[in-house]
């Protein structure tokens, strides 16, 4: 939902600059000058702002974090003690949507749709399955796995989807 990127907390701040280079779209900068008590922003979305007053805490807050926010974030801090830099690379996890259905041959199909990174799909009592990945323009991946050559006494098929954003499972009888 939101993310906070901390810059070094120092006293006697003269100037703070956040330089943001997202993977998608153009660069953005946010700056603060203590001598003018002035903040400025160039090409930054409204979802990015100072968490507090930048003269006391130059933390950057990103609200409603999405894939478009992925990229490099560098804080440059100038104080009477010297200059300080801190760089982050923001990666966004997208949990896949799990769907389990029977195809027109009566075989169970497990779909982990639009996850980032690609999910791992497995079956309980796997007899024969081959996952197939389909990449999307926004960086997400859909993984499809079809369970075939099932034993005749197996009535239920359970699909397990493993992902860094959380694991899911569903059971179906085809």
Describe the structure.
- There is one protein chain.
- The chain is an all-beta fold and 174 residues long.
- The chain is rod-shaped and about 75 Å long.
- 0% of the residues lie in helices and 51% in strands.
- The chain has strands at 2-5, 13-22, 28-33, 38-42, 48-50, 60-63, 71-79, 82-90, 97-102, 108-115, 120-123, 132-135, 141-146, 157-162, 168-172.
- The two termini are 38 Å apart.
Can you lay out the helices and strands and say which pair or pack?
Blueprint: E1 2-5, E2 13-22, E3 28-33, E4 38-42, E5 48-50, E6 60-63, E7 71-79, E8 82-90, E9 97-102, E10 108-115, E11 120-123, E12 132-135, E13 141-146, E14 157-162, E15 168-172
Antiparallel strand pairs: 1-6, 2-3, 2-7, 3-4, 5-6, 7-8, 9-10, 10-13, 11-14, 12-13, 14-15
Concise synopsis of the structure shown:
The chain is mainly β and 174 residues long.
Question: pLDDT average, as an integer?
Answer: 89
User: What's the number of extended β-strand segments?
Assistant: 15
Oligomeric description of these chains: single chain
Named CATH topology of the largest domain: Immunoglobulin-like
CATH class of the largest domain: Mainly Beta
Specify the CATH architecture of the largest domain. Sandwich
Q: List segments where confidence is low: pLDDT < 50 over at least 5 consecutive residues.
A: none
Overall tally of structural domains: 2
Helix percent band: under 10%
- Based on CA atoms alone, the radius of gyration comes out at 23 Å
CATH superfamily of the largest domain: Immunoglobulins
Please describe the biggest sheet, giving its number of strands, its sense, and whether it closes into a barrel.
5 strands, antiparallel
Q: How far is it from the N-terminal to the C-terminal residue, by CA?
A: 38 Å
Q: Strands of the biggest beta sheet: in what spatial order? A: 4-3-2-7-8
The assigned structural class equals mainly beta
Number of helices: 0
Beta-strand proportion? over 45%
Q: Outline, from the CA principal axes?
A: rod-shaped
Helix and strand sequence: EEEEEEEEEEEEEEE
Main location: membrane
Keywords: Disulfide bond, Glycoprotein, Membrane, Receptor, Transmembrane, Transmembrane helix
Subcellular location: Membrane
Family: Belongs to the CD200R family.
């Amino acid at each position: 939902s939101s993310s906070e990127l901390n810059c070094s907390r120092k006293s006697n701040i003269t100037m703070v600059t956040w330089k943001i280079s997202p993977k998608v779209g153009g660069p953005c900068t946010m700056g603060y000058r203590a001598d003018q008590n002035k903040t400025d922003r160039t090409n930054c979305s409204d979802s990015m702002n100072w968490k507090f007053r930048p003269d006391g805490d130059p933390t950057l807050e990103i609200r409603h974090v999405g894939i478009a926010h992925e990229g490099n974030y560098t804080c440059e801090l100038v104080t009477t003690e010297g200059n300080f830099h801190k760089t982050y690379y923001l990666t966004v996890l997208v949990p896949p949507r799990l769907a389990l259905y029977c195809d027109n041959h009566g075989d169970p199909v497990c779909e982990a749709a639009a996850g980032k990174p690609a999910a791992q799909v497995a079956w309980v009592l796997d007899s024969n399955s081959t996952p197939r990945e389909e990449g999307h323009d926004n960086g997400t991946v859909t993984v499809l796995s079809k369970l075939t050559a099932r034993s005749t006494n197996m009535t239920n098929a359970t699909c397990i989807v493993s992902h860094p954003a959380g694991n899911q499972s569903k059971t179906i009888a085809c």
